[in-house]
Amino acid sequence: EIGKIVQNLLQNILNIEQLHQRLNDKDRVKLDRQIRLLRSEIDREISEFHILREQAMASSMN
């Protein structure tokens, strides 16, 4: 289920980026920072998810 949530988030980011390209320069600059922050946050969450998944898999093998 977490993997599905992550995939949905990534798809939403792609949609935002496509809309972002259609904006005028002033609005685009406003959203640039928000998009970068969102991508960074999601990248951290994905990394944490992978770590937790690996830990769970390792503990289930023992």
TrEMBL record:
Classification via Pfam families: STX17_N
Record-linked InterPro entries: STX17_N (IPR059001)
Domain STX17-like N-terminal: 2-54
Protein name: STX17-like N-terminal domain-containing protein
Organism from which the protein derives: Rotaria magnacalcarata
